[in-house]
Amino acid sequence: MDKAMVKPFLKAKNTLKKIGIDLQVEDTFRYKSVQEEQYKKSLLPGSKKTGLVAHPDSSYHPKGLAFDLAQIPEMKDPKVSTVLKKLGFIQSRPDDEWWHWSLP
Ligand SMILES: [Zn+2]
């Protein structure tokens, strides 16, 4: 995780903890090689992730500026997104990738 993200991320975690929500993250920093592998896989015919995985050069994961929430109902609680937005995080694809958050 990039230094720029550590502070707002921990703040989000603590704020949510106070209202009884445990911020659960599935994925944050990704090595560029891993992103590249996921990107290539997403382009294979039949992949459900076609168009959803960013190119390794444009993804915020290798930069340490993005994280993916665990895909569980608790993380869909609107309080989670309210807190994250307040701390400056953005959702680039709220409709088909609601779990992905990054710094702008
Ligand atoms: Zn992501």
- How many H/I helical runs? 3
Number of strands: 3
Strand order in space, largest sheet: 1-2-3
Mean pLDDT: 95
Order of helices and strands: HEHEHE
Helix proportion range: 25-40%
Percentage of residues in strands: 5-15%
Describe the biggest sheet? 3 strands, antiparallel
User: What general form does the structure show?
Assistant: globular
**Can you list the ligands bound to this structure?**
zinc ion
Rg result: 14 Å
Give the terminus-to-terminus CA distance. 15 Å
Q: Stretches where pLDDT falls below 50 for ≥5 residues?
A: none
Structural class, please? alpha+beta
Count the domains: 2
Keywords:
binds zinc ion, single chain, 3 strands, 2 domains, alpha+beta, 104 residues, three-stranded antiparallel sheet
Write a structural description.
The protein is α+β, with helices and mostly antiparallel strands. The chain contains three helices and three strands. α1 (3-18) packs across α3 (78-86). The radius of gyration is 14 Å and the shape is globular. The model has no long low-confidence stretch (mean pLDDT 95). Bound molecules: zinc ion.
Short summary of the structure?
It contains three helices and three strands; from the N terminus they run H-E-H-E-H-E.
What is the topological layout?
Elements: H1 3-18, E1 25-27, H2 32-42, E2 66-69, H3 78-86, E3 100-102
Antiparallel strand pairs: 1-2, 2-3
Helix pairs in contact: 1-3
The structure holds zinc ion.
